[in-house]
């Protein structure tokens, strides 16, 4: 039997686009489920269930492949695995809090500003060269955030700041991932990070000692399954095509969330949220294109 031919570049881009659309749809499903719970389940518990499922699914595969590491190199990397787990757990908790207490689409776009903060951190802490184009894109992104928040027009909600905090924390975890990837395989980073997320989330889970009501269990289960599925779809999209192509699709979360919020919760963002969203999207698109051009010029896999 003849071996299947490798997918062409247009086919890989189509696959990446479809995987990204699936991931965004699943992320929107997570947001809907969090809103449906209306705060009845402790927010930190939702992160625990997510982490537990990820460990249950991924850790046996990684251990079987012998990629968990041992000895001195593992001890050296362990503090970074722990810190990354703390950042991701806290970021998820902040995002779920924002979803519970502010309009869904607005929470989604504010938490989606992660690439802007990551670009800033890469230049400040990882020694990456930040081009003039990237600085302009970063400044544009912060301008978009200001338009969305409109600090002079109304009181900035704690939930909005929490959504922004989730973006900063996700960016911090990505910066640590960039640092670790210089010496650690991706499977080890994923395995230990998920283990640390579950361990950190277990502390408030044990303290709360809260057992979800039977009526809430379907929403909790959906959050864990949909969230894990979204992460898988994102990984498949990045594997199929360059992140500079796949990344902008992630911003489909905003219109998807807006439509879902209108249908289910009678919410619709005002004009300033849409204007700010457009500015933020232009910023992130500029960052991804500049990064792709940098890789093309230097022939590197990371910029």
SSE diagram, text form:
Layout: H1 9-37, H2 43-64, H3 71-101, H4 104-111, H5 114-125, H6 132-149, H7 158-180, H8 186-208, H9 217-240, H10 243-246, H11 253-265, H12 271-298
Q: What does this entry show, briefly?
A:
The protein is mainly α and 303 residues long.
- Count of discrete alpha- or pi-helical segments spanning 4 or more residues: 12
How many structural domains are formed by the residues? Answer: 1
How do the SSEs run, as a string of H and E? HHHHHHHHHHHH
Q: Please tell me how large the radius of gyration is.
A: 19 Å
Q: What is the number of beta strands? A: 0
Low-confidence stretches: none
**Termini separation:** 41 Å
Coarse structural class: mainly alpha
What about the largest sheet? none
Strand content: under 5%
Averaged pLDDT, please? Answer: 83
Protein described:
By secondary structure, the protein is mainly α. It has one domain (14-298). Helices cover 78% and strands 0% of the residues. The chain has twelve helices and no strands. It has helices spanning 9-37, 43-64, 71-101, 104-111, 114-125, 132-149, 158-180, 186-208, 217-240, 243-246, 253-265, 271-298. The protein starts with 8 loop residues before the first helix and ends in a 5-residue tail after the last helix.
């Amino acid at each position: 039997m003849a071996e299947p031919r490798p997918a062409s570049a247009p086919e890989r881009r189509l696959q990446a686009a479809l995987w990204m659309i699936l991931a965004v749809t699943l992320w929107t499903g997570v947001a809907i489920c969090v809103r449906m719970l209306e705060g009845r389940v402790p927010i930190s518990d939702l992160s625990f269930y997510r982490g537990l499922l990820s460990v249950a699914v991924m850790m046996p595969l990684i251990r079987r492949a012998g990629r968990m590491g041992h000895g001195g190199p593992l001890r050296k990397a362990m503090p970074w695995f722990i810190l990354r787990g703390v950042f991701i757990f806290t970021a998820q908790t902040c995002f779920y809090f924002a979803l519970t207490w502010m309009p869904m689409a607005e929470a989604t776009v504010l938490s989606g500003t992660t690439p802007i903060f990551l670009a800033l951190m890469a230049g400040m802490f990882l020694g990456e060269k930040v081009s003039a184009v990237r600085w302009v894109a970063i400044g544009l992104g912060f301008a978009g955030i200001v338009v969305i928040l409109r600090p002079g027009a109304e009181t900035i909600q704690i939930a909005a700041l929490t959504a922004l905090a989730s973006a900063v924390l996700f960016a911090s975890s990505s910066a640590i991932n960039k640092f670790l990837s210089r010496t650690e395989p991706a499977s080890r980073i994923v395995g230990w990070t998920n283990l640390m997320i579950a361990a950190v989330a277990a502390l408030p889970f044990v303290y709360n000692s809260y057992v979800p009501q039977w009526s809430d269990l379907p929403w909790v289960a959906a959050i864990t399954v949909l969230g894990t599925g979204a992460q898988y779809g994102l990984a498949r999209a990045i594997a199929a095509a360059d992140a500079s192509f796949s990344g902008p699709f992630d911003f489909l979360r905003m219109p998807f969330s807006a439509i879902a919020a209108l249908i289910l919760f009678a919410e619709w963002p005002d004009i300033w949220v849409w204007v700010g969203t457009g500015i933020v999207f232009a910023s992130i698109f500029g960052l991804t294109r500049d990064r792709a051009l940098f890789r093309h010029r230097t022939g590197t896999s990371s910029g």
